[in-house]
Design goal:
This protein has 539 residues and is an alpha+beta fold. Strands 4, 5, 6, 7, 8, 9 and 10 form a seven-stranded mixed beta sheet that branches. Strands 15, 16, 17, 18, 19, 20 and 23 form a seven-stranded antiparallel beta sheet that branches. Strands 2-14-12-3-11 form a five-stranded mixed beta sheet, with helices on one face. A hairpin with a 7-residue loop joins β21 (498-501) and β22. α2 packs across α10 (157-168). The protein is globular and about 70 Å long.
Length: 539
C-alpha cells in the first residue's frame, strides 16, 4: 500500500505529463501482478461501488472527532471533499503506516471489499474508524478515496496505457484495446495485459473510440472561408450528419452479440432489438455507430432515448413507445480482422457493401455530397429540422485512431440555442473550487414570476468567478444549507443544445448541456427571456 500511496501523492501533486508517466512506470515495474492490476483498475477511472454511504461516514466522523456535527458539516462544506475532510480532522501525519508492508491487492481484497460482508453498521464502523485512528494522513486520504469511489488522480486511460506500453514494450493501441470492456483485476489479467501481442482479441472486447475535435472559434462559429482555409479541399472530406444519441460499438463474434457504449458499459440487454438485428451480421464484424430513438423515419428527441437508458430489461410497452435503431457510420472489424488502419474511404466502401444486407434496426449513416464548402454549410443549416447536431467531417484517408486525433475528424456543430436568464441560487463547487460559489441556478420569467430552467457551472473565467463569488456573498437573501438565494438581478446568457418537455421541472421544460456563454451586465433582470420564448423553441 505504501508504494501505491506514494504513486497517488505524486500523481495528485504534479501537472507534468512526463512526471506522471515516469511515476507510473516506476510503480508498474516494481509491483507484483495483482497490485499492477488493481492499480490499473483505479488509475484508468474504474471505481468500486460505494462501500459505505456518505451520511454514515459524516456521522462516524463527528463521533470519532468529538466535534459538534455543525462544525464537521461546516468543515466539509469548506474543504469540499469528504475523504480529505476525514484525513484532515483525524489522521496523524507522523505515525507509521500499519499497511506499509502490505500490497494494494491484499488490502483491497482482504479488507476493503469485505466491508460488504459485514452485516451491521456497528461492525463496519469499528473497522473504518480503526483505519482513521491508525493511518497517517496520506494513507488515510487514499483509503477514504478508495472506499467512497471518489479516486481521481488526473490521469486518463490513455496516459496509463502510455506507461504500460513503456513497461511492456508493446504498442500503446494494443494496451488500450486490452483495457476495453469488462475484466477482473487480478494477476492473470496483469500478465495477459503485458504479454507479447499474439493478435488475439477477447470475444466481447470493443475497440477504443476514435473521437472528433470541435471546429469552432470562440465566441462564435467559423466563417465558410475560415473553414476552407483550415481544412482545405472539400473533396478530401467525408461529411455526415452528427447524430444525437448514444455512441456504441456493435460486436458480432462467434455467434454472440455485444453492444458497448462509449462509457464502456455493456448495454446489449437495454436494446434487445439491436442485438436481435445483429444476428444477421457475419461473424467477426464490429460496427461503430449511434443508438437513436427512431420513429416514422426520423430521430425522436434524446429525452425519448433516456426512457431506455438504465432499464436492463425494458418491457413491451417501452419497446413499442420508444423504438431504437443503430445508425452505423464505421466498420472496425471484418471477418475477425482489425481494419482500423485502413483509410476511411476503404472502410466506408466495405461498410456500404455490408449495409446491403442490414436488417431493419441497422441503418447506414448517409454521406452528404457537396463540391464546395458553402454547399455543405447550406445543408448544415437544416440540422435542427432533421433533429441532428450539425455535421461530422472525416478525412477520407484517416485511419480509425484512438481518442481525439486533432486534424482527422471534426465535429462542425450548429450554433447552440441561447437564452438570457436570471441567477436565483448559488452553491459551492467541489475540490479546488469548494470555497467558491461556482454552481448556479437560472430562471426566466413566467408572467411576474421567475421559474428555474437550468443549472450551470461552466463558462466563466477565473476572474469572473472571483467577482461573482464576492457579489453572491454580499447579496445573499436566504440560506438553505450550502445553497444561497441571491438578489435576482444578475443576467447571464446561457447556451444549450436542445430543449424538451419535462414533468420533472417546475417550468415544464428541460434543456440539454446548459453552460454560461457570457455575463450580461448591461441587461436589467426585466430584460431576461420568458418561458414562452423558450417554449417556442420546443420541437
Amino acid at each position: 500500500m505504501q508504494r501505491f500511496t506514494e504513486l497517488y501523492r505524486t500523481l495528485d501533486q504534479t501537472t507534468s505529463t512526463n512526471a506522471k508517466v515516469a511515476a507510473m512506470v516506476e510503480y508498474f515495474e516494481a509491483a507484483p501482478g495483482a497490485d499492477q492490476a488493481w492499480a490499473v483498475y483505479f488509475l484508468s477511472g474504474r471505481r468500486l461501488r460505494r462501500l459505505v454511504g456518505a451520511s454514515l461516514l459524516r456521522q462516524w466522523l463527528a463521533e470519532s472527532s468529538e466535534l459538534p456535527e455543525w462544525l464537521v458539516e461546516q468543515t466539509y462544506a469548506s474543504v469540499g471533499d469528504l475523504a480529505e475532510t476525514i484525513a484532515l480532522l483525524l489522521a496523524d501525519r507522523v505515525v507509521p503506516d500499519p499497511f506499509a508492508s502490505r500490497g494494494l491487492a491484499d488490502f483491497v481484497e482482504g479488507d476493503l471489499l469485505t466491508l460488504r460482508g459485514l452485516e451491521h453498521d456497528h461492525a463496519r464502523r469499528e473497522r473504518v474508524t480503526g483505519w482513521w485512528q491508525t493511518l497517517p494522513y496520506d494513507a488515510c486520504h487514499l483509503v477514504n478515496k478508495l472506499m467512497t469511489g471518489a479516486l481521481r488522480v488526473g490521469v486518463s486511460q490513455t496516459l496509463v496505457a502510455t506507461a504500460l506500453a513503456q513497461v511492456s514494450g508493446l504498442p500503446r493501441p494494443v494496451i488500450l484495446h486490452r483495457l476495453m470492456g469488462e475484466w477482473t483485476p487480478d494477476a492473470a489479467f496483469a500478465a495477459a495485459l503485458l504479454a507479447e501481442d499474439d493478435g488475439a482479441a477477447v470475444l466481447s472486447r470493443p475497440y477504443p473510440y476514435c473521437l472528433a475535435s470541435p471546429i469552432e472559434r470562440r465566441p462564435g462559429e467559423l466563417s465558410i472561408d475560415e473553414v476552407a482555409e483550415q481544412l482545405g479541399d472539400v473533396a478530401d472530406w467525408q461529411a455526415e450528419w452528427k447524430w444525437d444519441g448514444i455512441r456504441g460499438q456493435l460486436i458480432r463474434r462467434q455467434s454472440q452479440t455485444f453492444l458497448w457504449s462509449r462509457g464502456e458499459e455493456l448495454i446489449t440487454g437495454q436494446f434487445p432489438e439491436i442485438a436481435k438485428a445483429a444476428e444477421a451480421l457475419p461473424d467477426g464484424t464490429v460496427l461503430d455507430g449511434e443508438v437513436l430513438a427512431w420513429q416514422d423515419g426520423a430521430p425522436m428527441p434524446f429525452s425519448a432515448l433516456q426512457r431506455r437508458i438504465g432499464r436492463k430489461k425494458p418491457g413491451a410497452k417501452t419497446l413499442a413507445d420508444y423504438p431504437v435503431i443503430l445508425r452505423c457510420y464505421d466498420l472496425l472489424e471484418v471477418g475477425g480482422v482489425d481494419v482500423r488502419e485502413q483509410p476511411l474511404a476503404l472502410r466506408r466502401a466495405q461498410l456500404e457493401s455490408l449495409a446491403a444486407t442490414f436488417p431493419d434496426r441497422l441503418h447506414l449513416s448517409e454521406v452528404l455530397e457537396a463540391t464546395r464548402w458553402s454547399a455543405l454549410a447550406e445543408q448544415r443549416q437544416d440540422s435542427r429540422e432533421r433533429a441532428v447536431e450539425g455535421l461530422m467531417l472525416k478525412h477520407r484517408e484517416s485511419h480509425y485512431g484512438t481518442g481525439r486525433k486533432r486534424g482527422l475528424w471534426w465535429k462542425w456543430k450548429i450554433e447552440p440555442h441561447t437564452v438570457d436568464a436570471v441567477m436565483l441560487y448559488a452553491q459551492p463547487g467541489h475540490g479546488r473550487r469548494a470555497n467558491l460559489y461556482t454552481d448556479y441556478t437560472f430562471a426566466v420569467w413566467d408572467g411576474e414570476l421567475l421559474v428555474p430552467i437550468a443549472k450551470a457551472y461552466s463558462g466563466l473565467d477565473n476572474q469572473e468567478i472571483d467577482e461573482l463569488d464576492r457579489w453572491i456573498r454580499r447579496n445573499t437573501r436566504e440560506r438553505f444549507g450550502p445553497v444561497r438565494s441571491v438578489e435576482p438581478v444578475q443576467v447571464f446568457e446561457l447556451a444549450f443544445e436542445a430543449i424538451a418537455r419535462s414533468t420533472r421541472h417546475k417550468s415544464g421544460i428541460a434543456v440539454r448541456f446548459p453552460r454560461i456563454r457570457r455575463w450580461r451586465k448591461e441587461l436589467a433582470p426585466a430584460e431576461a427571456d420568458t418561458l414562452a420564448s423558450l417554449e417556442a423553441l420546443l420541437p
